[in-house]
């Protein structure tokens, strides 16, 4: 079941060596007492911190380090390059006229990595 994404949501990248924590842009709309995310919260290092190390040869830093290591894949520090907003967003839930984020949204890095949410940052609790 989709959940609204907020600050503290956990993310993974297909070419990252570790998880990262989502940081929504400050706005007056909260969900579970945390700032709610929107599709334009895709600013590298601000909304989307690094995923520790990058392992894709399409990243020029990884390609150069791998070439210097005579073809042995050499991960380099992750610096996300995010040219487009999160997709698909939640078009029927607008926050300040921008579609909201849910945990089904994805973000593509210019180096080919697919960024996804592993937790939404909030959880639904059911009372028995």
Instruction: Estimate the helix proportion, in percent.
Output: under 10%
Mean pLDDT: 94
Secondary-structure-derived class: mainly beta
Strands, total number: 10
Separation of the first and last Cα atoms: 19 Å
Q: Main β-sheet: number of strands, strand sense, barrel status?
A: 4 strands, antiparallel
Keywords:
single chain; 128 residues; mainly beta; four-stranded antiparallel sheet; two-stranded antiparallel sheet; elongated
Structure described in brief:
The chain is mostly beta strands.
List the helices and strands and how they pair.
Layout: E1 10-13, E2 20-21, E3 30-31, E4 34-35, E5 53-54, H1 60-68, E6 76-77, E7 90-95, E8 98-100, E9 106-108, E10 114-119
Antiparallel strand pairs: 1-2, 1-10, 3-4, 5-6, 7-8, 9-10
How would you explain this protein's 3D organization?
The chain is mainly β and 128 residues long. It has a domain at 10-51 and 80-119. The chain is built from 1 helix and 10 strands; from the N terminus they run E-E-E-E-E-H-E-E-E-E-E. The chain has one helix spanning 60-68, and strands at residues 10-13, 20-21, 30-31, 34-35, 53-54, 76-77, 90-95, 98-100, 106-108, 114-119. The strands form 4 sheets. A 4-stranded antiparallel sheet has the order 2-1-10-9, with no helix packed on it. It has a two-stranded antiparallel ribbon with strand order 3-4. The radius of gyration is 16 Å and the shape is elongated.
């Amino acid at each position: 079941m989709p959940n609204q994404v907020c600050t503290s949501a956990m993310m993974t990248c297909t070419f990252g060596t570790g998880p990262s924590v989502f940081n929504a842009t400050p706005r007056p709309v909260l969900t579970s007492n945390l700032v709610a995310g929107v599709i334009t919260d895709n600013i590298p290092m601000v909304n989307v911190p690094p995923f520790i190390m990058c392992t894709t040869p399409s990243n020029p830093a990884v390609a150069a380090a791998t070439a210097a290591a005579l073809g042995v894949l050499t991960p380099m520090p992750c610096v996300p390059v995010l040219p487009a907003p999160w997709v698909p967003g939640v078009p029927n839930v607008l926050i300040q006229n921008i579609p909201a984020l849910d945990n089904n949204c994805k973000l593509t890095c210019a180096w080919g990595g697919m960024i996804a949410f592993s937790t939404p940052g909030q959880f639904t609790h059911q009372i028995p």
